[in-house]
Amino acid sequence: MICASLTSPTMQTALADMKKACEAADIVEIRLDYIDSPAVKPFVENRTKPIIATNRPTREGGKYEGDEKKRIALLREAAAAGFDYIDIELDSVERLGEHGASKVIVSYHNFKQMPDNLREIHEQIVAAGADIAKLAVMATDICDTLRMFDLLRDVSIPTIGLCMGEEGVITRILGPRFGSFLSFGTLAEGKQSAPGQIPIRDMRGLYRVNDLDAETKLYGVIANPVAHSMSPAIHNAAFQEKGINAVYLPLKVADVRRFVAEFKKLDMQGYSVTIPHKVDVIDVMDEVDEFVSDIGAMNTVVNRDGRLCGYNTDCLGALRAIENVMGGEEPLKGKRVVMLGAGGTSRAIGYGIKARGGKLTILNRTVSKAEKLAGEIGCEWGPLDRLTEIEFDVLLNTTSVGMHPNVDDTPAPTDVLKEGMIVFDAVYNPMETRLLREATERGCVTVSGVDMFVNQAVAQFEMWTETDAPVERMRQVVVERLKVR
Ligand code: ATR
């Protein structure tokens, strides 16, 4: 069940929000402590879904600062008026008294950390006569969530278990799958009543919280920070499009070694890996493919019967995007390829071009870096201005030149661009860089950073599911996201 937690400041806005919440959610929590002069009857009279009365004091993370007796009296009033559930804190439950037909949620909050005695607290809640237990604790590391899932798996009464904070977001998505009575969400962005809550629109549309079951396969992106990753939008849309029972989670990971070791018990089927873990994660794989050993960075984990295997689809995605427009068998073989840049992206793509038989030359602003990378890959190198002197079939920009906000910059003079050439730009913001615009005007075939980004996700999806990826749907998600930026 998804519960909308309402933090409206007045009776008028709270009643209007309850109407929307009754449409969006399965159950609605009215946070009486947020409302100026709250009255309980109008909620009961106007609700179309079960409602919870909560009047949280500041000591448990709420807004109520007044007299304790009055605080509890309002909850009793809510029970008498016909609220379906009354939420009362463990430290106050003795004072609740008569609560009619309302069920009692006995709650515990810890805004600092995951307590050592989580189970003991749950036992105290049961002993206090709760109909439903609620434990909301702050996750300071994503591995804290595993203790919450363990608790949810074997409880004697219905229990709401969640971890707050960005590290705890996955408990809000997976909680019901592990048996949580409900999961709280917000009606709109920015209306959180607790850290880490996500909009109900995403709980339903993106993560399909109510559809997840014991069979649901788990995937996710390991990153830090993770909030702005586009990968959950892309992969969840792809799973949905293909009717695959799987969910893709945002995983804010500080210590990748600990994460990989401890999350083995969840048997996640695959991960994307991004900044800052692309290098460190290699050490904790059971095996990695040849590109990963060469490049020294990876972005994809596939769980093969418990063995974690590492790949680099940044490399594979770029190759695929480029080869798609060239067509035919081994299209890069023997082609003269110039790559501008000698950074991390260049490294991933450069090894790929070499492996496909391209005749590669690396040109870079800092020539020593071009020399070093070319020495490792085994190819030609030089300064950027060499571009006007050499002949080539394929031009790859892997520098950040032309990226927002410097959209008027370009790494290549227009007159080197000739009809029929392949021109690739790893920059995806803007989607059409000045380089690609001028290349199109000169009759070149262009490949954008969006194509690379989509294809790295496509390659991941296909490795994980062993089925064709819904490429157009994935591209649509990326393009929509980039447009609203
Ligand atoms: P990434 O991981 O995205 O590849 P990076 O490793 O920082 O990022 O690499 C950035 C690349 O863009 C480098 O090749 C860099 O050139 P230097 O090695 O000389 O720094 C290149 N780059 C960035 N800004 C540039 C500019 N204004 N002109 C030319 N090259 C530039």
Hetero ligands: 2'-monophosphoadenosine-5'-diphosphate
**Broad structural category:** alpha/beta
- Number-wise, the strands total 21
CATH topology of the largest domain: TIM Barrel
Provide an overview of this structure.
The structure is a single chain. This protein folds into three domains: 209 residues, TIM Barrel (Alpha-Beta Barrel); 113 residues, Leucine Dehydrogenase, chain A, domain 1 (Rossmann fold); 133 residues, 3-Layer(aba) Sandwich (Rossmann fold). The chain has 16 helices and 21 strands. 48% of the residues are buried. α11 crosses α12, α11 packs across α15 and α15 crosses α16. 34% of the residues lie in helices and 21% in strands. The model has no long low-confidence stretch (mean pLDDT 96). By secondary structure, it is α/β, with parallel strands linked by helices. The two termini are 32 Å apart. Bound molecules: 2'-monophosphoadenosine-5'-diphosphate (ATR). 2'-monophosphoadenosine-5'-diphosphate binds next to α12.
